[in-house]
Specification:
Layout (H helix, E strand, L loop, with lengths): L28 H7 L2 H31 L1 H7 L4 H30 L9 H23 L5 H23 L8 H10 L1 H18 L26 H42 L5 H25 L4 H10 E5 L14 E4 L2 H4 L2
């Protein structure tokens, strides 16, 4: 698992970097529709760019937040890692659910498979399970990137290699020989698990719209006409992916929390080393009191200068000396006398 670099002690000022616009990967939807059966694979091909864009948005949002340093600033303010990541996951899942509901509503308007009324419960189950499986591994992948541009390019390539190409390949091979690779890909690549699920729903309701139960995606009763004859269990595998991702996220957050505490201890040790072996709290308090007395003494001297006496005038005259913004201009045009200032008056007062 890639290690996230340790955050700085204090947030260093940096120029905000505008996050890159999420770039949807160039998914060969036409190739999928040509290789697979026309009635079942076209809706899946249409859903591939949406799934890729959703995963890219999650990764890019986290990486962009890392570029701005917002997480470090929130940690300095006392925000816990667990609260930060749980809040981010809830917001991202809710946003992706809204997108899928919008896509489903548009599909229902045109009654195109698998977006039909009988298949609606099955679609909701698939989206409810696979979206967390997409979001949480995206957070784990975001630890490996330093810029949103690099994240977009890499995730586009990974989506093509781990989702689109294996899915098209599985449509054309013997299922009995590749059931184990199918299970591994469904577990390691949530976008791949999403596409066979939608493909199965599309094939089932395109051939038998009056299926007894819309949740037959969990059984094998309607797989005679299904082009993928191996068991259709990507939904169950996606549930396992969610659990595994949650465990990995919990371990990662625990590691980050320990690193943060260790950094605080190291920072305290470095501060004590800089102060010297004889430094203690009492001596630090004495330094603070001494500094306060120095400030009060300087304020009293300033009041003495402002009193208007002869000695005060002499002090002011000896401290006058700098002129800013003076310009002779060109032929008298643009002449600026500048501004006279008192130079180092605070230090110049005897």
């Amino acid at each position: 698992m890639p290690c996230l670099p340790r955050p700085p002690r204090l947030p260093a000022p940096s120029t905000p970097v505008a996050p890159a616009v999420p770039v949807a990967p160039a998914v060969p939807a036409l190739a999928v529709s040509q290789l697979a059966s026309p009635s079942a694979s076209q809706p899946v091909a249409a859903s591939q760019p949406a799934a890729a864009a959703e995963e890219l948005c999650c990764v890019e949002s986290v990486v962009a937040e890392m570029e701005h340093g917002l997480r470090t600033m929130l940690k300095v303010c006392g925000l816990r890692n667990l609260a930060l990541w749980l809040g981010t996951a809830v917001v991202d899942c809710f946003a992706m659910w809204l997108c899928t509901l919008l896509i489903t509503a548009v599909g229902l308007c045109f009654q195109s498979s698998p977006f039909t009324v009988p298949a609606l419960p099955a679609l909701l189950v698939v989206f409810a399970i696979t979206i967390p499986a997409l979001v949480l591994p995206s957070y784990l992948l975001s630890f490996s990137f330093d810029s949103t541009q690099l994240a977009a390019a890499t995730l586009s390539l990974l989506f093509l290699l781990l989702a689109v190409i294996p899915f098209v390949f599985m449509l054309r091979v013997s299922p009995a020989s590749f059931s184990i690779p199918h299970g591994l890909l469904s577990l390691l690549s949530p976008p791949y698990a999403l596409m066979p699920s939608l493909h199965f729903i599309a094939a089932a309701y395109a051939h038998e719209p009056l299926t007894p139960s819309p949740l037959d995606i969990y059984s094998l009763s309607a797989t005679d006409y299904y082009s993928l004859h191996y068991p259709a269990y990507p939904v169950q595998v996606s549930m396992t992916s969610v659990v595994i991702a949650l465990v990995l996220m919990a371990l990662r957050l625990g590691q980050l929390h320990r690193d943060w505490e260790n950094q605080d201890e190291e920072g305290a040790g470095d501060l004590a080393a800089m102060m010297g072996p004889g430094y203690d709290e009492e001596s630090g308090d004495r330094d603070v009191v001494r500094e306060k007395e120095h400030v009060q003494e300087s304020a009293a001297k300033w009041d003495f200068v402002q009193s208007g006496g002869k000695e005060g005038d002499l002090v002011l005259c000896s401290s006058v000396g700098k002129n800013f913004g003076a310009s002779s201009g060109v032929c008298g045009i643009g002449k600026n006398p500048g501004v006279w200032t008192v130079s180092n008056l605070w230090l110049g007062v005897p």
